Amino acid sequence: MAFTITCPVCGPRDGYEFRFGGEDKGPRPEAADLTPAAWCDYVHMADSRPGVQKEWWVHRQGCGAWFTIHRDTVANQEVSLNLLEAAE
Amino acid sequence: MNRLKHLPTLRITPGAARSFTYGKHTFEGLQGDTVATALFANGVRVFGRSLKYHRPRGLYSLDGECSNTLMEVDGVPNVRTETTPLTAGIRVAAQNVMGRPELDLLGVLDAFSWAMPAGFYYRMFHRPARVWPLAIQQIRKAAGLGRLSPDFRMPGRFDEIYPAADVCVLGGGPAGLSAALAAAERGLRVILLEARPWLGGAFEYRAADDGDGVALHRKARDLAAAVAARPEIRVFTQAPAIGVYSDGQVTAFQRGGPDQSFDERYIEIRAAAVVVATGCGERPLLFEHNERPGVMQPACAQRLARTWGLLAGTEAVFSVGHDLGLEAAVDLFDLGLKVAAVADIREDGQDPTLVKALAQRNIPLLKGWVARKAHGGNRVTGATLTSVNGRFHRRLTCDLLAAAAGLTPATGPLTLAQSQLAFDPHTGYFLPRTLPKGLQAAGRLLGLESWAAVTASGRRAGLQAAADAGADCQAAIRESEAALRDLPGAVRGSKFVIAPGCGRKAFICFDEDTTVKNVDQAMAMGFDVPELIKRFTSAGTGPGQGGIPGHNLPLYVAQTGLSPDAHPRPTTARPPLVPTLLATYAGAQHDMSKRTPLHDLQVACGGRMERVGVWTRARRFTDDPRCRTEILNVRTNVGLLDASTLGKFLIFGPDALKALQRVYVSDMARMTPGRAKYSAMCNDDGCITDDGVVVQTAENDYYFTTSTARAGVTVEWFRYHTRYDGWCYHLVNLTDAYGVLNLAGPKAREVLSRVTTADVSNAAFPYMGYREMAIHGVPVRALRLGFVGELSYELHVPSSYMPALWDLLMEAGRLEGIRPFGLEAQNALRMEKGHLIIGSESEQRTTLHDVGLGFLWQREKADQRLVGAAALMQTERQPGRLKLVGFKMADPSGPPPRDGSPIVDARIRGYVCTARYSFTLKEPVGLALVEDGLAQEGARLAIYEDGCQGQLTHAVVTPYPFYDPEGRRLRQ
């Protein structure tokens, strides 16, 4: 958690102010036709791939907002979206 | 011991005596001494005994690079006496000694070093297995550093601070000082960390000059004064950096003392840019008995004299590999030390002025020579020198052997910051090949030596860091780079490690008693890279964290030619770079808790206050731990409970109902105005996390309560589970803004009707009703609930009105015998009634079904994507789960089992959640979570209690609620 995170409301802040909310896996699935295995996958399984991923964070010791950032899990640093788009 | 006087470099205050005890002696040191220098001044030469062989050890360096001078100070073991300032009245004792350090009975172990080859600890005592416990006991007695009793409590005051800066500079030598000044001049806020008590680094004690006639110590002090004068620079001395992380995070600790508010504190810095200017230490020279007391690093001898006025001996032999060693020999000669000879590993390349200075003083300089052996036991009595090719020897008498092979850069912070280090053949250093963004390196750790080059590189790094922090200074950076190019670059350094023909008693690591022979043994067994050899021989894993062997081990391994690495490869460094007290990491222990608005009133009523989670609450109001009178008063008259810790929330907005539907298991659309709805929340696994009541106060406007423990996370929970939906609702946490009084008991209505004009009759305000009323003008949200199983009113009022309402009700209920009750009484009352407390009657794996609340779940609201719905479906009829049951004791005359006691039957099959003696039922009753096989009425439960000596007690599963199962009393 040594890294900094940019809160959309409060700006760049110390990583300790935030709590991790998991990889971005999209909206909650519809309950109809949902198998227990698929549900378990959605709730508990993460890709955990090295590289840049989109993930949820909450500014727990700040404004309380939930938001997504892109983070390089190898360098353990937030990656700005502009840089990402420039690279693509 | 007489001190040298009138040196401009001294850091001691003559005349300011500080007396302390060492063993049976009372010694005197001076203000400015460290514990180690004060001991040295009093003639102590053997400071302790080594880990394995119990060899005598003395002062070797002065910055705590090795365990030689670890001692017990005021009962605290392993104190680094080299870096601990002397304070008056301390008690110092040697450690790892049987007898006296000068005459250690275990010193005989040294003669048996042949029996303890590398890794013997792992290899010798594992067969047969029964030997191990015996062996480990004996080894533990003989080995190890310091002793700590199991009930030791760390004395001292500890603290923590979290400062921020634009630029953080590590190292207060000329490079660091210049970097800090350069950044400060650009208007940036700078934090500078220096491990020593003063600034100036390796220059602040040097009397030499750079040819301009101004002594280096003068220049260093002027530069330090310039830094002190800048308000933008915050200087921390006695504060070694211990960690460097991404995004400019630096951790350190700082030693304080009687004059500060702390003895030691943890510092965590967040900076936009970091400059590493940690300089160099001296790289130890390996030869036979290279760690005898009396062998020390040349800079150690020089600093002893220059900083503390202590001559380290009377007659010295120097064996050096760099010009600083020659300079130290000349300087110490001028201060009164006899120098028998100076051996220099280098055949050529010495600074001609220093060679001339030695010649002028008739000090023989032996180029291409090196120390081969130190003679003597507790003290050095002589040295044998040898030519580097090993052909010629000379024995000299001396009581000081100042030896170093070269210099070693303090690259630890760079390694931690993920900088790639590569071996540089010119300097013999591991130099940064790449630097991560926002990190700069400067000064001597890059191989620079001259004042001008070191300060110029500091300035360049400071400007670069300023640019990293957002300052516009590209032109100045280009200028500083040009200036640096015109100055002398990195100095050629020695790669020499060990004198020819040595190894058996040549120690590469002092802390772990690792000899070069041990390294050879490890390599013979196939460990061929430094990192592995480090693990196997434990060289560099001791308290010094590689300060002594860190550089020598890879150099030596590469020189054997037996390693697959063509170039030396550094071993890894990990935080903390300097061993740090756990107490320092723990930092300040401010025990902070929240108090309810009724705290003082409850204390005045005899409330026994207790910490419960984040709150301090009243456990009970009498001396009776079972709270008999409190309980019976609620059952027969009326009681008053401060329930202010309940979570209280408003939720409103067009999508408020959708949000409630998402997290509450019940169908929240089916709510009647004026009625409270009891429901529960589950997590995605269907496990119950919270229960509470919700009321609709207007269209799209709701008020709800959560359990005390969930109050802090509820907003986060709602927002998390609706984060994809973009719903429009607002949540307001009123937990601290509102207080709650629970007026409970059969006479509650009489009391309430006396303070309000609102109609509180059973018809007008029935069970589960919600009313907004006024009590003497105070706005009250009143809920008619029955947690304790009696007629009761939960009165929610703004916090500031709570004391007034408490007084009103206590006064109004006097006739009815009203009295306050606490958490313990509430716990027994609600348990008799079979009401749950989430966390007591549930654990992480307990689902809504398991605690018998499955009926709250309304599955027809499938379109709401309820949190936990899928798991509730799946676990509804899942076998093998722990179910909540009630029980009574097979022997009703016995005591109730303790909460948490396991229920056993060859294996653990459940546990007691809450059990109390019921004053209402006149026998113990309880709730337990048991395997479904035991959950039928009449099943016998065997309960194991702590300390029961195998005597199980027995209980029988009984339906609950035990008290008023029909719920008549709630509705009366």
Describe this structure as you would to a colleague.
The complex is a heterodimer of chains A (88) and B (972). Chain A contains two helices and six strands, in the order βββαβββα. The mean pLDDT of chain A is 88. The two termini of chain A are 27 Å apart. With 88 residues, chain A is an alpha+beta fold. Chain A has helices at residues 36-44, 81-87, and strands at residues 4-7, 11-14, 19-23, 52-58, 66-72, 77-79. In chain A, strand 4 (52-58) and strand 5 (66-72) form a beta hairpin. Chain B is of the alpha+beta class and 972 residues long. Chain B folds into seven domains: 13-126, Ubiquitin-like (UB roll) (Roll); 158-281 and 409-485, FAD/NAD(P)-binding domain (3-Layer(bba) Sandwich), CATH 3.50.50; 287-404, FAD/NAD(P)-binding domain (3-Layer(bba) Sandwich), CATH 3.50.50.60; 507-583, no CATH class; 600-645 and 737-831, Probable tRNA modification gtpase trme, domain 1 (Gyrase A, domain 2), CATH 3.30.1360.120; 647-733, Alpha-Beta Plaits, CATH 3.30.70; 835-971, 2-Layer Sandwich (Gyrase A, domain 2), CATH 3.30.1360. The longest helix of chain B has 18 residues, at 451-468. Chain B is elongated, with a radius of gyration of 37 Å. In chain B, strand 42 and strand 43 form a beta hairpin. The chains are: A alpha+beta (88), B alpha+beta (972).
List the helices and strands and how they pair.
The complex is a heterodimer of chains A (88) and B (972).
Chain A: E1 4-7, E2 11-14, E3 19-23, H1 36-44, E4 52-58, E5 66-72, E6 77-79, H2 81-87
Antiparallel strand pairs in A: 1-2, 3-4, 4-5, 5-6
Chain B: E1 13-22, E2 25-31, H1 35-41, E3 48-49, E4 56-57, E5 70-73, E6 76-80, E7 91-93, E8 99-100, E9 103-104, H2 120-123, H3 131-142, E10 158-161, E11 164-170, H4 174-185, E12 190-193, H5 216-228, E13 233-236, E14 241-245, E15 249-255, E16 264-276, E17 280-283, E18 295-296, H6 298-308, E19 315-320, H7 323-334, E20 338-344, H8 352-360, E21 365-367, E22 369-375, E23 382-387, E24 393-397, E25 400-403, E26 406-409, H9 412-416, E27 420-424, E28 429-434, E29 439-441, H10 451-468, H11 474-485, E30 507-509, E31 514-515, H12 516-524, H13 530-537, H14 552-560, H15 582-586, E32 594-595, H16 599-604, E33 608-612, E34 615-620, H17 628-636, E35 639-642, E36 647-652, H18 656-663, E37 677-682, E38 688-698, E39 701-706, H19 714-721, E40 730-733, E41 738-744, H20 748-755, E42 770-775, E43 778-785, E44 792-798, H21 802-812, E45 819-820, H22 823-832, H23 869-875, E46 882-889, E47 902-905, E48 907-918, E49 923-931, E50 940-943, E51 953-958, H24 968-971
Helix pairs in contact in B: 4-5, 4-10, 6-7, 7-8, 10-11, 17-22
